[in-house]
Design goal:
Structural class: mainly alpha
Largest sheet: none
Number of strands: 0
Radius of gyration: 25 Å
Oligomer: single chain
Distance between the termini: 55 Å
Length: 276
């Protein structure tokens, strides 16, 4: 009995496979998702995931800042120091979530293999970082506004320019979220990511809430290196009866620049962690 390939038989219904064409068809993949649609999808997914812990998250972040203002009320009467305390405590809510919790989240995501899941999706790395950062920062809006209103009532500050928070929250949140994500992605262990996030939040607490005039000169220089400082300064200037809007815009511009740089570093750290 001789064996003849089916493809050479006359009238055979079996087509001869084109190896080159099959390889070419198998190699063709769907286009990668564009940045903004992918960013919106990741943001919605992260928002629904974190929604379960929203109430405890808001309570802890807000209660911490309100408690600090009550303690500072015993040593600060008013004036510029009161403005610094209220502005620092308000931005501290953003730091608690965007810096501390985001560092913990990305540290656990890296240790648990969660980055492998995102690496298989056809989404840009920037969409993953920005989506998670935006979702976590969104939870800070009610707590930040509540803290600012309570601080104004406690210290007798005007509320005419509280709308400045609408710019301070996203810009300071972007700067702190990028820093928190980078710490979580670069830390070799999740415990170290948690430690770095808590140290960063402690720095935002001490250097942001305490009046700068009472800090030593060396510590004031360190305060200038903290991304949240410029959000605190912009908000504190808004309590003046006639704010110098040029300085407010300058502080917000620094926040925006630091936010772009820190999110770029976080994106690079994500690529680095995803391929290891």
């Amino acid at each position: 009995m001789s064996v003849v390939p089916a493809g050479v038989l006359p009238g055979s219904a079996l087509p001869v496979a084109d190896d080159a064409g099959a390889s070419r068809d198998a190699a063709e993949l769907g286009p990668r998702a564009r940045l903004w649609p992918a960013l919106a999808a990741v943001y919605r997914a992260q928002l629904s995931r974190a929604r379960v812990a929203r109430i405890p998250l808001l309570f802890v972040a807000t209660f911490q800042s309100v408690g600090i203002m009550i303690l500072m009320r015993g040593v600060v009467d008013g004036g510029g120091e009161a403005r610094s305390v209220v502005a620092g405590a308000s931005v501290l809510v953003v730091a608690f979530v965007a810096l501390n919790l985001l560092a913990q989240y990305f540290g656990q995501l890296r240790a648990g293999g969660g980055l492998d899941h995102y690496a298989t999706l056809p989404v840009p790395p920037a969409a993953v970082v920005l989506g998670a950062a935006g979702a976590y920062a969104s939870f800070t809006v009610p707590g930040t506004l509540a803290t600012a209103v309570f601080g104004c009532v406690l210290f007798g500050l005007p509320m005419a320019h509280l709308w400045v928070l609408l710019a301070v929250i996203p810009l300071a949140g972007a700067a702190l979220a990028g820093l928190g994500a980078a710490l979580g992605l670069l830390a070799p262990r999740p415990e170290l990511a948690t430690l770095l996030g808590q140290l960063g939040m402690s720095a935002a607490l001490l250097l942001g809430v305490l009046p700068p005039d009472r800090l030593p000169t060396v510590v004031q220089y360190a305060r200038d290196l903290l991304p949240s400082t410029y959000g605190v300064e912009a908000f504190a200037r808004a309590f003046d009866s006639h704010p110098d809007w040029a300085f407010v815009l300058g502080d917000l511009a620094v926040c925006a620049g630091v936010g772009v740089a820190s999110l770029a570093v976080a994106t690079w750290a994500y690529r680095r962690a995803a391929v290891r």
